[in-house]
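Let us practice reading a record.
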Amino acid sequence: MSVVRKSGKKGPVTVREIVKEVVLGPDLETKFEELKSEIMNRIDKELCDSQNTRDFITQKYENLCQKIQILTEVSNVMTVFRRDFKALERQIEDLSSRVTDIEKRSFPDIPSLSSALQYELLPQ
């Protein structure tokens, strides 16, 4: 006796397939196949959604890392600028002090112009 499959699969028919056909019937088997197909489609959709989400998060993370790197570089530049400005400030104070000393030695009776300017430039 030869058994022919409805599904179109090739090869010998298994006992499981025969029992499934006899016990469940063609309508129930079709429902199971539809369910299986729907479940597989949902799983594929969830996988695709999770991959898209992962890609989005990775992109945002990379953008954030770039911004952090840029801000770190800006911070380093600002630190160097502050250091340079402090050094310039010390040099200006030193020069002002020297000019005041020279003025005092050269013109002992006249108040120092540079010290007057220095007091005007100091923050109140």
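A brief commentary: The two ends are 111 Å apart (CA to CA).
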